[in-house]
Structures are given as C-alpha cells and as structure tokens.
Amino acid sequence: MDVVMDAEAMNAFLATEFPQVNGQFRVDHVGEEGVTARLLVNDSHLRPGGTISGPSMFALADVSIYCVVLSRIGKVALAVTTNASIDFLRKPVAGKDLLAKCRLLKLGRALAVADALIYSEGSDDPVARCSMTYSIPPKR
C-alpha cells in the first residue's frame, strides 16, 4: 500500500487532533520503509537520575506506530492501540532527543501490526524495542 500522508501532513494532523502533546513529538520522515518520529526531550521527560522515563519512551513508540499506520490509511483519528509490548534495552543518552524508527509489519482491514526501535539521537544502539497492534475502525 502506498504512503498517503507525508511528514508535513502528519505533523499538522497531530497538532490539530492531539493538542495536548503538541510540541513534544515530531515526525521527521515518512516513506515506503516506514516512519521516523522524534521525542523532543525536555525536563518533563526525565525521571530521577536524569534518564528519560519509560512512560516517555512508550509514548514515543505509541505516537510513531500510530503515524506509520496513518501513513498508509490516512486521517483516521479513531485508530486505537489494542496490544503493546516494550522492551527497555539500555539507558538513553542524557540530553539527546529520542528517535523511533517504525515499520509496518501487517496492514489488514481491521488490524495493523507494527514495530519500533527507539534510539538516542546520534547513537547506533537501540534503547527500546516496541511492538503494537492497532484496531482500525470500519469505513463508513
């Protein structure tokens, strides 16, 4: 299936539909191979010890996988997560944004399955791996 939303359209959609997280995430790239999204790390994402919190990394995975699904099906705000699994692999680099590189594994009529590897910007070693399934509402 072809890409139907580019990074600019995706960022505009997120800003409109999810104003509560506006300014925290940015889609950097949308292509046939998947989506790269960024958590714009600030002090609100840190936990004691100065590392990025697990919930912040999970949120990046969820947003980026949502975007890889929407990049193929279009603006379907009510697509929702139905299953999620995340492995935290190593401590993120302090003071760096996190990047999620996502790929769509399967796109069906009702479900989409995708995964994401999360990296500290500038690092080749992933800090987390996530797999999610999204439910796609029926077309009206």
Describe it.
The chain is of the alpha+beta class and 140 residues long. The chain has a single domain, classed as Thiol Ester Dehydrase, Chain A (Roll). 22% of the residues lie in helices and 37% in strands. It has a six-stranded antiparallel β-sheet with strand order 1-2-4-5-6-3. The radius of gyration is 14 Å and the shape is globular. It starts with 6 loop residues before the first helix and ends in a 5-residue tail after the last strand. 33% of the residues are buried. InterPro entries: HotDog_dom_sf, PAAI_dom, Thioestr_dom. Keywords: Hydrolase. This is PaaI family thioesterase. It comes from Paracoccus fistulariae.
So what's the CATH class?
Answer: Alpha Beta
**Percent of residues in beta strands:** 35-45%
Proper CATH architecture: Roll
Number of DSSP strands?
A: 6
The total number of structural domains is: 1
- The percent range for helix content is 10-25%
Structural shape: globular
Q: What is the overall pLDDT average?
A: 94
Largest sheet: 6 strands, antiparallel
Please outline what is shown here:
The protein is α+β, with helices and mostly antiparallel strands and 140 residues long.
Features:
alpha+beta; 140 residues; 6-stranded antiparallel β-sheet
Could you outline the blueprint of secondary structure elements for this entry?
Elements: H1 7-17, E1 25-31, E2 34-39, H2 54-73, E3 80-88, E4 98-107, E5 111-120, E6 126-135
Antiparallel strand pairs: 1-2, 2-4, 3-6, 4-5, 5-6
Pfam family, one: 4HBT
Keywords: Hydrolase
InterPro entries: HotDog_dom_sf, PAAI_dom, Thioestr_dom
